[in-house]
Amino acid sequence: MSKLRCAVVGVGYLGKFHAQKYAALPDCELVAVVDSNPEAAKAVAEQNHTRALSDYKELLGQVDAVSIVVPTTLHFQVAKDFLEAGAHVLVEKPITVTVDEADELIRIARERGLRLMVGHLERFNAALLGLDLTHDKPLFIESHRLAPFNPRANDVSVVLDLMIHDIDIILDIVDSEVERIDAKGVTVLTNDTDIANARITFKSGCVANVTASRASLKVERKMRMFMPNAYVSVDFQNRVLAKHRKGEKEMFPGVPEIVSEESVFESGDALMEEIRHFTACIRDGAEPLVSGWAGRRALATAIEITRLLKA
Pairing relation of β-strands 178-186 and 207-213? Predict the structure, then answer.
């Protein structure tokens, strides 16, 4: 089996880890890393025994797959160029700046039979992967994603920075059209929204209450789901999945007992699992877990929440 020729465009904080994963995969060849900062590209290239480039266009037509880890404003043009050159694309979240841009990338990928995947990394969290809601859909979901301020990600609001992770997961779980969104937010440390809350009502009747903050003193990444006969909690930070269900016995007359079960997952490498999944989809011709359409759906909802916050 021939190796996939891979590259990473943008080797800042996150991009350098993409490069490490491709370099470690036996069925991939890391052809080059690209960055507008030649020194950054050189350092990552030396660490991973590959070439350093400062212009990604030198790679067009030369690679089978690429990770795009550049600022969001550049996602569309870089992804478009690689797709049109016949390369499969893994683009970091959010997929693009606008829905129209996302639609264009999806169209090109579909017409050319290419895999377009969006880097919603939390989908590969072991605790979430252990969740099975096949026979029990939530009626109410509550999520909290809190983090201290990080100047590295202040080019977008907290909705596109943090909340979009939970938006993507919730939209996938509920699998229903959005009927209504209400949102409130406040500016604390930047000129954009730093703390936001959105209430998403779905046509199925499910309601999701989503909170995100980048002005907190602690880190918390939790989601709680309430079903008719169960309550499930996913702790993304500590990789803990807790399930609480009605038992056959009674804890009080006429009141069923609550049976609890908790699973703690090993500290895994979600990024490696994401890139392994991406390369497997390329070889198998399968639809990625987080397709371009899933990324577009999350973006559209995040944009609407952002519009409501500004209004």
Answer: unpaired
